[in-house]
Amino acid sequence: MNSFKAKIISTFSMYGFTLRSEALKYIHEQLENINESQIDEVIQSIIDQINSQNLTCSLIEKSHLEEAFQNLDCTSNNDGDLLKIFDAFSLIRFTYNIDSKKFLTWSTLHKKPVVLHGNPDSKADMLIERYKTVHQRTARHRLFSAQSIVSSANQSQNYTLKAVEHLLGLSCTENNIIVLGMLTQLKEGQFFLEDPTGVVPLNLSKTVYKGGLFTENNIVLVEGFSDDKVFHVTAMGFPPPEPAEETLSYFPNFCATPCPTINSHRLSIKLREIEEENSNAMFVFLSDIWLDQFKVMQKLQVLFAGYSQMPPTCFVLIGNFLSLPIVGSQSKVFEDCFSQLGSLISEYPTLIENSQFIFVPGPNDPGLPYILPRPPIPDTFLGDFMKKVPKAIFTSNPCRIQYCSQDIVIFREDIISKLCRNSIYTPWEHEEKVDIPNLFVKTVIANAHLMPLPNNVAPIYWEYDHSLWLYPLPDVVVCADKYDPYTVKSTSSIFFNPGSLPRSNYSFKVYFPASKEVEDSEISDEAMN
User: Fold this and answer.
1) H helix intervals, 53-192
2) Residue-wise DSSP of 28-86
3) Using one digit for the tens of pLDDT, what is the confidence trace for 291-322?
4) In whole angstroms, what separates CA 448 from the centre of its chain?
5) Cα angle at 185 between 180 and 186, to 5 degrees?
């Protein structure tokens, strides 16, 4: 018994906590009947819960532990609703703490709420957080975790990540250096590599680029040699990806969506069982639904009529919702078009009763100036529609759907064209066969971010940059784009573009969460006859 108490005391001490005597007695009583193999996990969960209480003192009272155990009970007994929608402004902001090697909530460390418009330090914080997230993931990878790799010559070779300050401190040439940093352009036409320790100019004249669309603000792995304070890059690639299951094995409480459980819903066995049993669940995704086009409305009527016999779990309708940007008097057109859509949906009561309708705005839809994340379509345009479809949800761009144990991210942006236009290397000019969607997916997975572009190309609210993170990797990422429809499976995640409805012959995508399969669909002209 004394060794058990000593273990509890030492574990709490590792995190800087001291237990009062009554608190130690209480936790000992609560844990004495728990299986020995689960003790470490439970103690760790309690400490994570204590961290989330934003304590001002390291002294742990009995009341703190009582609250922690109450939340642990929620974890085991309450898995929440099966379908939840979260807008970008409700997501929890995390920061990687280098000392504890854990992701902690921003409010835990900074004792202040997240605001829309940050101060001048917010931009630096944003870029540092992106870098820390990718760096800790890369440093843990088997290629860089001080393990020996056998080369083709059967010689042992160690791969070690260096910081930029290492390059700046060299007094002579050193070859085969590998550095992780952010690609920046501090001077016109001159690229640099930057990390929290410094900045070094790059010579890219003989660089070989591997596997992605490389743009400014990308976090990249570069290999080369340093000479006269210039890093001569021989190869540039992206840091290795990490499947969500591996991420969650290190950080089980890392969950961006607010929920009552201490661990991520993605680890819930109960929710996974429900998900597999509900084989009829399906999500229908459509993008660029131009409600001012008569043929689009005709196609929607065919779609809703077809699904009225077997209502899907939800329809995710993604903007733009007009064929042209709204100017002046067109705001009335927007309201009238949604009123007509409401009338159309109300013709099918089985859909209103059994399906959820989710609306995500596009770049040209009404709202605030186009900075991401973009808030929902304002209620002033939706009065008549909401009377006809009262349960419809209008959410932000991007947003998240939590269905059972799965995370689904929905993002509306013509991101592929922006990445291609700003790429420092154009593979389509140097290689015969180039799979652009696959290169795009590799780029965003490696950067753990939906928009790894400079702010002048893709403006982001600095304080809400975390709403565009892809870490841990979601199960599904829907990147609605005017680019051709595609489906790419990578690193245990699915990325797909449903396509622009009018531009892609009225194609859309259907996702089946039980089997994790995506089906290509189309509203054919024959169905309209």
Assistant:
1) 62-77, 106-110, 121-140, 164-168
2) HHHHTTS-GGGHHHHHHHHHHHHHTT--SSSEEPHHHHHHHHHHHHHHHH----SEEEE
3) 999 999 999 999 999 999 999 999 999 999 99
4) 7
5) 110
Find the helix packing angle between 436-447 and 415-422, rounded to 10°. Answer: 90
Please, which pLDDT band fits residue 392 given cuts at 50, 70 and 90?
Answer: very high
CA atoms 287, 288, 290, 295: torsion sign: negative
39-51 vs 2-14: helix axis angle to the nearest 10? Answer: 40
**The tokens of 487 are what?**
């489906």
Side chain identity at residue 464, one-letter code: Y
138 in Cβ contact with 239 (< 8 Å): yes
Instruction: Tell me the angle at which helices 39-51 and 21-31 cross, rounded to the nearest 10 degrees.
Output: 140
What is d(CA 195, CA 139) in angstroms, rounded to the nearest whole number? 14
| Helix, strand counts (H, E) of the chain | 15, 25
Q: Judge contact between 415 and 451, C-beta under 8 A.
A: yes
Amino acid at 158: N
Q: Beta strand 493-497 with 476-480: parallel, antiparallel or unpaired?
A: parallel
87 — phi, psi (to 5°)?
-80, 170
Q: Which helix (H) or strand (E) holds 285?
A: strand 283-287
Contact (Cβ atoms closer than 8 angstroms) between residue 466 and residue 86: no
Is the pLDDT reported for residue 34 higher than 80?
no
The mean-pLDDT minimum among 11-15, 95-99, 137-141, 400-404 falls in 11-15
- Assigned token pair, 447: 């950067």
Return d(Cα 335, Cα 322) in angstroms, integer.
11
Q: Shortest CA distance to 431 belongs to which of 183, 206, 211, 205?
A: 211
Phi, psi of 229, rounded to the nearest 5 degrees: 65, 20
Give the separation between CA 493 and CA 472, rounded to whole angstroms: 10
Among 24, 26, 22, smallest CA distance to 10 is for 24
pTM given for the model: 0.85
Q: Are 359 and 396 in contact (CB under 8 A)?
A: no
* H or E stretch at 519: strand 517-522
Confidence tier at 78 by pLDDT (50, 70, 90): very low
pLDDT in tens, 137-153: 999 998 887 654 444 44
